[in-house]
């Protein structure tokens, strides 16, 4: 215990960083391995997918087929979309988390709370409402499977080769690819100084929505619901901040200047 207290006093930023990394990795493991707890029955999942299709038809947003054909008929678009789907979801989100961490607690903590809350809502939906993605329905093409030999993913969604059996292939509703991308756009909008970077954030969110539908991995309604659960996550973070956030809470990841407040850290 004494050694642990000494380490916390001597390396507070390092210890805090390790704890945050463990939290995010735990969230990722829960997200990736929800198949271990989800119902894998294909019949009900396909039935829900057809219900979504029917609803999209009535709403006039049944755009999956033309987008899927675009990614199937043009090899370079399909290949780039496959890399985007398999990579950006984790790399971009992780990079933005690191940037927020370096900005300090007032930026990082609310954003992390929103990400965790939104993802937990998505995981609850995966467990309660397993839904088949378009690539499981006749007429749609699994674009990542077409390009599996060109990347590190297998023919089981975007899982690395050999790990396909540990992924939840019925985790389509809502799309957390779309949700996390919207989270990226929202936190960049809030904290980035450069206008062009804010535009890039929104383009990333829009591009992710197109990619996940075009590659046959999500329905349009999955995208909309992914956005909504992340917006709900931000609402939860606001409530948590209003109830329990101490305005005088020391910031981490930001250098202090003298004995006053931490120096402001913004993206330049």
The helical percent reads: 55-70%
Number of strands: 0
**What is the overall shape?**
globular
Supply the number of helical segments: 10
Radius of gyration: 20 Å
| Helix-strand makeup class | mainly alpha
The SSE order reads HHHHHHHHHH
SS strand fraction: under 5%
The main pleated sheet reads as:
none
Total separate domains? 1
**What's the mean pLDDT score?**
82
Query: End-to-end span in angstroms?
Result: 41 Å
Low-confidence stretches: 246-268
Provide keyphrases for this structure.
single chain; disordered C terminus
In short:
The protein is an all-alpha fold and 268 residues long.
List the helices and strands and how they pair.
Elements: H1 2-10, H2 12-32, H3 42-59, H4 64-73, H5 75-103, H6 105-128, H7 143-146, H8 176-191, H9 195-214, H10 220-244
Helix pairs in contact: 1-2, 2-6, 4-5, 4-9, 5-6, 5-8, 5-9, 6-8, 6-10, 8-9, 8-10
Explained architecture:
Residues 246-268 have low confidence and may be disordered. This protein is 66% helix and 0% strand. It is globular and about 60 Å long. It is built from ten helices and no strands. It is mainly α and 268 residues long.
């Amino acid at each position: 215990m004494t050694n642990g207290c000494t380490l916390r006093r001597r390396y507070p930023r390092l210890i805090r960083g390790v704890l945050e990394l463990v939290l995010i990795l735990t969230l990722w493991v829960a997200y990736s391995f929800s198949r271990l707890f989800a119902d894998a029955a294909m019949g009900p999942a396909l039935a829900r997918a057809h219900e979504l299709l029917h609803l999209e038809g009535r709403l006039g947003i049944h755009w999956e087929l033309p987008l899927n054909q675009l990614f199937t008929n043009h090899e370079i678009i399909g290949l780039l979309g496959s890399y985007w789907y398999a990579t950006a979801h984790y790399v971009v989100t992780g990079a933005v988390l690191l940037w927020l961490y370096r900005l300090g607690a007032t930026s990082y903590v609310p954003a992390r709370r929103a990400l965790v809350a939104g993802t937990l809502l998505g995981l609850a939906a995966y467990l309660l409402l397993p839904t088949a993605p378009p690539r499981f329905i006749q007429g749609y093409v699994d674009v990542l499977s077409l390009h599996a030999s060109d990347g590190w993913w297998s023919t089981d969604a975007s899982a690395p080769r050999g790990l396909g059996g540990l992924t939840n292939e019925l985790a389509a509703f809502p799309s957390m690819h779309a949700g996390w991308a919207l989270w990226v756009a929202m936190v960049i909008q809030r904290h980035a100084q450069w206008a062009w970077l804010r535009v890039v954030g929104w383009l990333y969110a829009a591009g992710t929505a197109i990619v996940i539908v075009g590659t046959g991995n999500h329905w349009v309604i999955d995208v909309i619901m992914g956005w909504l659960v992340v917006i709900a996550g931000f609402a939860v973070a606001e409530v948590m901040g209003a109830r329990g956030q101490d305005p005088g809470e020391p910031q981490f990841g930001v250098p202090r200047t003298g004995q006053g407040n931490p120096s402001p850290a913004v993206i330049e």
